[in-house]
Structures are given as C-alpha cells and as structure tokens.
Amino acid sequence: MSKGKLFKELVNAPEILVSPGVYDGFSLKITEQAGFKAAAITGAGVSECHFGWPDHGIMGFEGNLRIARMLAERTEMPLRVDADTGYGNAVTVHFVCRAFEKAGLAAMMIEDQVWPKRCGHMAGKGVIPTEEMVQKVQSAADARIDQDFCIMARTDSAAVYGVNDVIDRLCRFVEAGADICYADALMTVDDVKKVVENIPAPLCVNMGLGFQTRGTTPLITPKQLQAMGVAMVTFPRLLTTAAVKGMQNCMEAFKTMIEGEEPEAREDLQVSFKEIGELMELPMLDDLDEKYAVNAKTAE
C-alpha cells in the first residue's frame, strides 16, 4: 500500500487522525516511537529550526523539499508536507507537486495566502482570489502520478473575509480536485461546526496545547473535534515549543553550574546518550558494522 493510500484511509476512518507536527529527526522519531499513525511536517518548524527564521516566506521550495525528503526517507509513517503557496503560480504548483510526491510524501498542503506568506496565526495575512487558488489546486491534482497522493487545500480567509468565505472557497477547492480541506485559524467552535457541515470533503484543523494565543482557534480536544465531524487535527507547535522550552530550562541550569563550585548532574533535564542512540536506531548501524565492517581478522 502506498503512503498516500494509507494516509487517505486514516483521514477517512471513523476515528479522528491526530497528527503532531515534526520538523527534524528527533521530532520524527519521537512521534513514531509514541505510536502516532501519521505526522505533519510543520512549515513553521522547518523554517525556524533549519533556517533560523520565522514562517514568513523566507524558506523556499528547494530548502523545504530537502528537509521533507530526508524525513520521508526515515519513516514508514505517512507524512504531509506544507508546500506553502506552491512557490509561484499554477504552473509552478505542477512541478512542486511532482517533486514532493517523488520525494516520498503522502500528502501535500497548499494554501491561498499571498506571498510572502505568514504563519497562519500571525496578524496581517492576505489571500489570493478564489479562482487563482482553484487553478493551483487543479494543477496539483492533475500533476500527481499516484492518484492516492493526497492534495490538501488550505484557506486562510477566515481572518480576512469570515467563515462563509471559507466554506465557499473550500467547496470550490474540492471541485478542483482537493482530497482534504484545511481551514486555518477559525475563530470559534461554532465556526468549526459550520465548516464541517457545509463542505463535501474531510476537514483538518490545527490546535495548540496548554495555551491560547488571542484571536485564534479555541482549544478543543480531539474527541470533541471528532464528535463535530472533523477528520484530522494537527498540532504543529507541539514539539517545537516543547523543544525550545526544554533547551531554555537546560541552559539556565547550565549557567548556574558554570558559576558554581562543584559540577551538578541534572539528569532530569537531559536524556542519556543511550536513549538518544536507541531513538535514532544506533543498534541497527552497530549490526551493519558487525556484518560488513572490515576488521583486523578479515584483513589478514
């Protein structure tokens, strides 16, 4: 079964698909180890972690493709890539779709923001005309080789034109060939319900965890979303924010240790070398070394 077909089955299953955001080898393997069935490559996380800039249109297509290919090669989980606005017009989207499918992704998300795009929960977003986005969706749908490679069409129009425009756009995107709809930054629970009830394709929304940024989607549990009819929920900031907080806590302890008279072990702030090795599958490499490496005895 292709990764695209598996992803499509998970999205259309009765149980909501919970998809953490991944952005590097650690986050990918932790998500896999935790037993999740799929993951979403977070564009913001990739931009911040690998390029050192916010999700503000700095990261380009080639940089995104390189990271996405690496992550897809390191897991059997189906991954959805964030292809931003498609990096150009509808013709460009054709080649972007082909490249991500060839790289081993299960799904590609494109959005209707103007370029340079912004993280979905930032202020100051703008969206392109509906018809222009329809052409991009149709181009992506036509470009795929495997018809199970999923096209996710996202709209950010809630913050610009309101929920009725979100519904109108998503319905047009489905007509153009989108398999999954993504409504970003819906403002209320009622908005989520209204979108679910008025579009002809599975809906994906995103969530935070433990805090709420003013003016964005309220926190709703996966079980509550499933009861509303939402097919998929992503948590794009789950691991990026946790990683930054963990590093900040460790750095504060490290600075205290530097100023102290005696070394202090803070195993509560770190995982062991052994744990990292096991997470990153070092034992498999050790087995390959033992099987293939030239040692002194064989050299004789």
What does this structure look like?
This protein has helices at residues 3-12, 25-33, 43-51, 61-73, 90-102, 130-143, 163-176, 189-198, 222-228, 238-259, 273-279, 282-292, 296-299, and strands at residues 17-22, 39-41, 79-82, 107-111, 150-155, 180-183, 203-206, 232-235. By secondary structure, the chain is α/β, with parallel strands linked by helices. It folds into two domains: 3-236, Phosphoenolpyruvate-binding domains (TIM Barrel), CATH 3.20.20; 244-299, no CATH class. Strand 6 (180-183), helix 8 and strand 7 form a beta-alpha-beta unit. Helix 5 packs parallel to helix 6 (130-143), helix 6 packs parallel to helix 7 (163-176) and helix 7 (163-176) packs parallel to helix 8. It starts with a helix and ends with a helix.
Strand arrangement, largest sheet? Answer: 1-2-3-4-5-6-7-8
Please estimate the helix content.
40-55%
In terms of quaternary structure, the protein is: single chain
Number of separate domains: 2
CATH class bucket of the largest domain? Alpha Beta
Q: State the distance separating the first and last CA atoms.
A: 47 Å
Number of helices: 13
Q: Tell me the radius of gyration.
A: 21 Å
Strand content: 5-15%
Secondary-structure class: alpha/beta
Query: Considering the protein shown, what is the CATH homologous superfamily of the largest domain?
Result: Phosphoenolpyruvate-binding domains
For the record, the CATH architecture of the largest domain stands as Alpha-Beta Barrel
- What can be said about the biggest beta sheet? 8 strands, parallel, barrel
H and E string: HEHEHHEHEHEHEHEHEHHHH
Instruction: Briefly note the CATH topology name of the largest domain.
Output: TIM Barrel
Instruction: Sum up the overall morphology in one term.
Output: globular
**What's the pLDDT, averaged over the residues?**
92
List unreliable stretches of 5+ residues: none
Q: Number of DSSP strands?
A: 8
